[in-house]
Design goal:
Low-confidence stretches: none
Strand content: 35-45%
Oligomer: single chain
Number of helices: 2
Shape: elongated
Mean pLDDT: 85
Number of strands: 17
Radius of gyration: 22 Å
Helix content: under 10%
Distance between the termini: 76 Å
Strand order of the largest sheet: 3-4-1-7
Structural class: mainly beta
C-alpha cells in the first residue's frame, strides 16, 4: 500500500487566545476582528485564536533563528527570549466594545501552554439583559465631555483593606461615555441581619477609571487600567468610587462625573 503526503506542517504553537463575554463568561464563538502585530493567528473550530508563528524584527537574524528553533523543535525545547505583544480586538457586529490586550510569549511556566489566555470583552450598551440580572447603565463624563474607554468595576465593599476586592461585574464606556454593567447571580431574597428578616439588595462599590492621556479614538487595556494603583510617571489616571446598592431584576441609570 502506498501513501501520498499531500501536506505536512508540524510545528509548535505559541499560545491560544480565548475571547470571553464579560456578562456570561462564555467563549465568544462569533467572528471577531483580531490584530496582533508580530504574530500569525488562526481561529480554530473551538473559537480559540491560536498563535501559530511569530515574526522577527526586520534584520534580526538571531531573533528569527530563535523563533524558528522554538517552533520546529519538540525535545529538547529551546527557550527563546520573551516578547511582549500588544493586540487589538473588535466585534464587527457591535455587541462588544473594542479594546487592547497584551500577550507575553513564550508562556511561562510550561503548564500554561495548554490553557488559553482569556481576554474579556465588555458589552456595548445595546446588549440585551436577562430579567433576573442586576444592572447599571452609566453615563460617564469628565470636564463636561463624554469619557470613552473608561474601565468600570462593580465590587463588594472591602471589610478589610488588606483583602483583595471581589469583582461582581465589569464594563467599559463606549465613544459616547456610556457603559452597561451586569451583575449575574444576585439572589432575589437573602437572609437579613439585625432587625431585617430578609434583604433584597446588596451593597456594592462602583469604581470607574479613565486614562486622561488617551488620544481621541485610542483604545485601552481595561484590565491594566482598572488594576493600576500607582500609575507610571506621565500616565494620568482619573478614578471615582461610588457606593450603591443593587437588586436582582433592577436596572439603575447613573450619571457620573470623573474628577
Amino acid at each position: 500500500m502506498t501513501f501520498t503526503v499531500l501536506e505536512a506542517d508540524v510545528r509548535r504553537a505559541w499560545a491560544a487566545l480565548r475571547f470571553v463575554d464579560a456578562m456570561t463568561r462564555r467563549t465568544i464563538d462569533t467572528p471577531l476582528a483580531v490584530d496582533l502585530p508580530g504574530a500569525r493567528l488562526r481561529r480554530n473550530p473551538r473559537g480559540l485564536w491560536v498563535v501559530l508563528a511569530l515574526e522577527a524584527a526586520p534584520g534580526d537574524a538571531d531573533g528569527a533563528a530563535a523563533i524558528a528553533a522554538y517552533e520546529n523543535a519538540f525535545h529538547p525545547v529551546p527557550v527563546p527570549p520573551q516578547r511582549s505583544l500588544t493586540g487589538r480586538v473588535a466585534d464587527p457586529l457591535g455587541r462588544f466594545l473594542a479594546r487592547r490586550f497584551a500577550l507575553t510569549l513564550p508562556r511561562q511556566p510550561a503548564a500554561t501552554l495548554f490553557a488559553a489566555v482569556e481576554v474579556v470583552l465588555d458589552p456595548s450598551p445595546a446588549q440585551p439583559l436577562l430579567s433576573t440580572w442586576a444592572a447599571l447603565r452609566l453615563a460617564v463624563t469628565r470636564a463636561g465631555l463624554p469619557a470613552p474607554q473608561a474601565a468600570v468595576r462593580v465590587r463588594s465593599p472591602l471589610a478589610n483593606p488588606d483583602d483583595p476586592p471581589v469583582v461582581l461585574g465589569r464594563g467599559m464606556t463606549d465613544a459616547r461615555g456610556e457603559a452597561l454593567v451586569a451583575v449575574v447571580g444576585v439572589a432575589q431574597v437573602r437572609p437579613g441581619q439585625d432587625e431585617l428578616v430578609v434583604e433584597r439588595e446588596i451593597p456594592v462599590e462602583i469604581v470607574v477609571s479613565v486614562d486622561t492621556g488617551l488620544a481621541a479614538g485610542g483604545l485601552v487595556d481595561p484590565d491594566v487600567l482598572a488594576d493600576m494603583a500607582d500609575p507610571p510617571l506621565g500616565l494620568g489616571i482619573a478614578r471615582l468610587t461610588v457606593a450603591r446598592t443593587m437588586a436582582s431584576g433592577r436596572i439603575e441609570t447613573l450619571a457620573l462625573n470623573l474628577p
